[in-house]
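User: Structure please.
Assistant: Input sequence and predicted structure:
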Amino acid sequence: MTLESPTRINNFFAVLENPSFSQLGVLWRKIRSAIKFIPIHSLVLIYRTLSAADVTFHLYLIPNDHSLRKAIEKEEMKWKSKHVPKPPQTDPLYFGSRYQVSGPSDLEITPTQLHFCYRSPVEQQSYIEIYTREMEKEIRLHVNGQDDGSLVWEALVRPGDVSLSALTLTGAAFVVKHRRQLRDRMGQIQPVLVCLREAQLLSSEEEEEVRSERTSRMRHEALLQLVERKGAQTQEDLYQTLRETDPYLVQDLEQSS
């Protein structure tokens, strides 16, 4: 353990510029990826690729690692893809194992299986492409272990989940449409403020203004008003922040639309 001297200190946070953190965390990822008997908390992510033919999905099977999710999101943005919100958690998986993806017979799934391993965020992440000419009815997707056939994840994808009108709803439109629910149902506001401040979307004074409200509902209202004053881009940034800090709320609101 080492102690770092902060660059500056605020009432609610400290700033550490150019920290000299240990590489042990990175090393541990590499070691863990080589040990095949340790169960790994993992995620399935689905994107609809709007630049591809007809209805095309990319399905990723990855360790639950924030840096990997961000790398995939950045790569999918190049293909004008939209995330399809489905419960992402799988049963614990094991590095070195293979997992089979299956669905209705009219789907074209290429390849049908993935080798589960850790890839650095700077590397290309493996995915499975799922194609159908048109999506008139719901499809149920499964991920099973190749060795024992055990079900580790499943999801029901409905036509409304992947319609262009649903997927192209901007973050700004989401915040406007669900403003009342966000005011009443947002969870802890601290992680949201931290993300917005780190992205330089809020000043220290504006953050203090939100924190000074007496109740959580009033703090939520103050944040929403502040974001509205800053315009559509900041509303979009708030939406992206909520997807990270409160994903289940965003998912519930999107599915209720």
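The chain has eleven helices and eleven strands.
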